[in-house]
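Rotation project, supervised by the postdoc (A.L.). Task for the rotation student: set up a whole-complex structure prediction and record inputs and outputs verbatim in this book. Inputs entered:
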Amino acid sequence: MVTCAACGTVAEEGSKFCEQCGTPLGAPAAVAEVPVVVVPDEPVAPAACRACGGTIADDGYCESCGEKAVSERDHWSELPSALVGGVCDRGRRKSRNEDAMALALSGTTAVLVVCDGVSNVPDSDIASLTAARAARDVLVTGSAGSTVGAWSALLVTATAAADQAIADAVGDTSGRDEPPSCTFVAAVVDGPTVVAAWLGDSRVYWLPDEGAAHQVSVDDSAANEMIARGVPRAKAEASREGHAITRWLGPDAETVVPSTGTTRAQGPGWVLACSDGLWNYCSEATDVADLLHRTITQVGSAPDVVAAELVRWANEQGGHDNITAALARVAAPVDTVHTDEAVPADRPSDLAPPAR
Amino acid sequence: MADFRTEVFQNEFLSDGATDVHAIVTVTSSGAGTAATSSGGVAEIVIIDTSGSMSGPNIDAAKYAAQVAVDQIADGTWFSIIGGSHVANRAFPYPNAPVAIVQMEPGAREEAKRAISYMRPSGGTAMSTWLRLADAIFAEVPQVAQKHAILLTDGRNESEPRAELSSAIYDVTGHFQCDARGVGSSWEVAELREIATALLGTVDLIRNPADIAADFKALVAESMSKGVADAELRVWAPQGAQVLFVRRVAPTVEDLTSRRTEVNALTGAYPTGAWGDESRDYHVAVRVPSKPVGSEQLAARVQIAVGGDVLASGLVKARWSDDSSLTARINPEVAHYTGQAELASVIQEGLAAKASGDEATATVKLGRAVQLAAETGNEEATSRLRRVVEIDDEEQGTVRLKRNTDKLDEMALDTASTKTTRVRR
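Outputs recorded:
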């Protein structure tokens, strides 16, 4: 039996291209499922210094350059496949990392979940990581080629699971003045179909290699309410109250039914899920696309490497907040190819599925 | 085994672009035991000036003091007595004895006291020979870890060039510790300070010969109370950083920067000598390359090591911040000891200027000293300064040099200049 590597459709014996999406068959699937990177719940000092590669002493600092050892919770990278990867980082100013992410490749479907714990509220770091993982674990049960409606329903289920996981992890904290809570954004990338669900202001962008980029999610934020009232975007996002989110996950959430949005890729590109630690420095989708393309030119197209570079860039801009960038590659959904000349000679190399 | 612990006082916050990190590290030992429990044993040598100038009450008092010291030396301690003039002579064990150093026991104690009573003053003063003989005698007991000498003089090192003394000090440094004492006003503070500084001891003035015995008694008791033979202060600084200075700042100011020996490329060791149950403060300054605001790193590990084992470690940190309410704070311990170190140097510079007839410089330096002593609450320094200068305005440091000051008062001010007071907490 031959299955299309891009969309999972079962092809007839002898077919050279997928009936469904036109991807060449026969070539080994570019992406094999890789076990999800396990992040320990307790911060563990890594053996090597992130700055110089030196040994970390028992006192928690590098033996050669003095850099403070970064716990796994403060900075980690996931690369479930060659097409899906991300980096979650404490940033420079915050004392701990309350962002979280959980990524997976299930069959051919990429799953990106990013949660941003509410700043400086006890246990928000636990809430965000638990929520992200719970949602991912639901989303990987979806089947490739499902309808947008089915994916949306699964995303709603996943969001509810994430909220339940927070409740299980932090107990009944609704009585606290500030119960732990977090934003939620999830994207499933099923072939050319991108379906997103969110609560709060963590975002999903569609960033095609060519053509117009756009934000798939719509922030549940005071800033957006201001924009809806006619305040210019830059001014609204820079305003003090603009960052207040109007929906979230956690014991004091009013609703945990996410908004959903979808987009269908017309060509190859990237889906980016990120926290405001990144988009604060680069909000407009076209700017994000420029940043991404510039980054790929510099460091190549391995998704974890690109994500790490985006995080580094955000830190360079100040790193005021925790930063998460998660990427999934959408390979060329070539609808109209009927011959062997699937790949034009002048095609830029960075449009090909990235190889590692 | 002694317990060491460290406590670090610093403001770890640096403003954007700042590079210099200062910290006061308090090192405290407890359970050090005594010299009797020290592994490897203890050796003690008493060196008495027997030059011609000692004739009269000085030699009588010195001999009495040496006998008191012998009474204080615990049984089992290796010991020897040296009489020093332009040459050094071993007084006990007797010069014709087959061994140069013996272990204390009641019979040896009585015989040593008799030997001391035979000492007669004559000749000049060449301290290099005293130190070299002590060094040779200590070398007879290589198994002994803790070696301590007391040196008493009443005069200048007049029988040899100064370079001879410096060269001998250089040669014996690291072999034993030595406390140096001057009686009367005819000795040179700088000479004894050079000996005591290099040999990790103290220098002090004894005004009245009758007080020598009490001082010797205290010195031997102090030496006998030290159960840790030799500890070193280690300072690790990160790759690319520079250790600006390492100073002991309490109980006295002593710059250790040039005493560094390399442990590894990033770590230097500085000698601290023997330890009893006590507490000392060190001021460590490190220059690190500036990092972006928000970064945190370790600027130094300050450790105490005995026999190569690190027993305690203090962490000096650097965190860059744009919050001026954090970065502008000056750590009170750092400020206090920075002032005390400056106090020691302006007293010494002021007295040196006065001695050379440069009254303008002396007035400015001693005025600054008065101001610093007041600011840092060092009342003993203020009262010693008062004997040398008339204070018009303590806060402004306005002073006039006193006429006809007692030489002993100037020497007392000089020898005590490095004594510091601790921060009131």
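Student's summary: The two ends of chain A are 27 Å apart (CA to CA).
Supervisor addendum: Chain A touches chain B through 16 residues (CB under 8 Å).
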